[in-house]
């Protein structure tokens, strides 16, 4: 059991770090609001996973049989209860992510109302279990998680399908709308069908981190996101010819640079130039290497600064 727990802990840490890094990388490339909400969703859910669940395993590992059973029960209940606010913020950011991805606007009272209601529920849960043993309190935690996770995942799924955003498009939003409640349903089954034991906690934790990872993976590798477009096509600066020659940019790469600066997504560039999406991605990666930039924003800033450099040099 110790070896299995360690393996799942390593996988959990890897999935948490990987999902956050994937969204961070996408944010550098496409500074879109829904990616920022997804970043915080992943962060809060990961915090709950490590603080509220893995904290239980750490208590056992560090204290072992030396801790009085009554004290251990109290610490476990408090640890799990204090982890619930991370869940609340994670669910709130999930709904915000779905709304921003679909192009919908949440009311200005959404955030305060959501927090007031859910913090109130947590306070009521705390009062109900204040004198319970951990084994007696755990079913209440499970039913609370099952009800809230299913409710908010279905709300997020509905909101994701309701809008008309083109980035991500309707097909991608449909897949995301299936992934979100699918992850919650898998976690629910683990909590309801597996008897209370370390196995239940391990399976649930693995599914918890898998859910946030799947969404991040799909957005990163399967979705063609569109950057914020400029109102008018960007005319290439006068120093562009020297820039192309100095950086050994090929004619095709120069075309791609022009379309990136005009705000086109990878798929739109592929359609306009009659090449595959993967070819655009390959060319873009080589452009980044040749020009020593990390993302579109840096490339656009570099190209837009050529005019200023050219004017400075002419003086």
Helices and strands, with pairings:
Blueprint: H1 2-29, H2 33-63, H3 69-102, H4 110-128, H5 134-162, H6 170-193, H7 198-221, H8 240-246, H9 251-261, H10 266-273, H11 277-291, H12 296-304, H13 306-314
Spatial separation of the terminal alpha carbons = 73 Å
Number of separate domains: 2
Please give the radius of gyration in angstroms: 24 Å
Helix-strand sequence: HHHHHHHHHHHHH
Helical coverage, percent range: over 70%
How is the main sheet built? Answer: none
Strand content range: under 5%
Characterise this structure.
This protein is mainly α and 315 residues long. The chain folds into two domains: 2-221; 240-314, Arc Repressor Mutant, subunit A (Orthogonal Bundle). The chain has helices at residues 2-29, 33-63, 69-102, 110-128, 134-162, 170-193, 198-221, 240-246, 251-261, 266-273, 277-291, 296-304, 306-314. It starts with a helix and ends with a helix.
Q: In summary, what is this structure?
A:
The protein is mainly α and 315 residues long. It has 13 helices and no strands. Helix content is 79%, strand content 0%.
List keywords for this structure.
315 residues, mainly alpha, Arc Repressor Mutant, subunit A, 13 helices, disordered C terminus
